[in-house]
Amino acid sequence: ETGVTQSPTHLIKTRGQQVTLRCSSQSGHNTVSWYQQALGQGPQFIFQYYREEENGRGNFPPRFSGLQFPNYSSELNVNALELDDSALYLCASSSTRVGDTQYFGPGTRLTVL
Amino acid sequence: LAKTTQPISMDSYEGQEVNITCSHNNIATNDYITWYQQFPSQGPRFIIQGYKTKVTNEVASLFIPADRKSSTLSLPRVSLSDTAVYYCLPGGFCGNEKLTFGTGTRLTIIP
Fold first, then answer.
1. Alpha-carbon torsion (B78, B84, B88, B94), positive or negative
2. Does the beta-carbon distance from B46 to A101 stay under 8 Å?
C-alpha cells in the first residue's frame, strides 16, 4: 500500500548469528529510517540513511549497522544476535521535504532463539 | 525531546465518536504534532498532522489548543476496522525526522 517493501517477512535465528534485513523505498524517496519494535512497545529509532550516508543514530550498539544503495534501497545488519533482538524491524522511506511524512513498510519479524 | 503521555487503552462501540488525548508539555516551538495508526504486524500509518487549532482530513480531526501542550485525535463514527494502536508524536514536520514513538493508545472497537 505504501510502496515500501521489506524482506524477509519472518526470520528465525539463534543467538550469536548474524542477520541481514532488506528494504526497498518508495519511488522518489531518498531517505530510509530503521526502527525496532519489541512486543507491546512503540517503534524505537535505530538509524537513518540519506544518500548512502548514515544521518543519525539512536541508542543502539555498533553491532547494528546499515547500508543504503544508489537506488535508495537499504539493509539492516545485526551481528552477534541476542535474545532481546527479537522484534519487528520496520523501515520507513521519506523525502527530506518539509511537510512530508514517513511511509512504513510491513516489517520483518525476527525471532532469536 | 518532548515526552508524550496517552491513555494505555480505550474501548468504544461501533458508530461512536472516539477522542484520544495526548499530552506533550514540553513540545518545541517548531514541532508539529503527528498521529500514526498501527495494526498488528504492520508498520505505522500516518493519519493526520497539525500545528495549532484544528485540522480535518477524510479520516480524522485533530484539535490543538493554543498552548499546544496537548492534542486530541477525533475519529468520527468508528468501525471495527479502527481497532488499532494510535501514536501521538511531536515533530514529524520534515520527512527525515527521527520519529520518537511512545507506547501509544490501544483502541478496541466493540460491535
1. negative
2. yes
pLDDT digits (tens, 9 = 90+) for A22-80: 999 988 889 999 999 999 899 999 999 998 999 999 999 999 999 999 989 999 999 99
Neighbours of B36 (CB within 10 A): 26
Identify residue A113 by its one-letter amino acid code: L
Strand, helix or coil for residue B80 = helix
Query: Could you write out the DSSP letters of every residue in B7-35?
Result: -SEEEEETTS-EEEEEE-TT--TT--EEE
Q: Which residues of B touch A29 (CB under 8 A)?
A: 95
In this complex, is the C-beta atom of B101 within 8 Å of any C-beta atom belonging to chain A? yes
C-beta neighbour count of B3 within 10 angstroms: 12
User: What grid cell was written down for B37?
Assistant: 495508526
Q: What is the 3-state secondary structure (H, E, C) of chain A?
A: CCCCEEECCEEEECCCCCEEEEEECCCCCCEEEEEEECCCCCCEEEEEEECCEEEEECCCCCCEEEEECCCCCEEEEECCCCHHHCEEEEEEEECCCECCCCEECCCEEEEEC
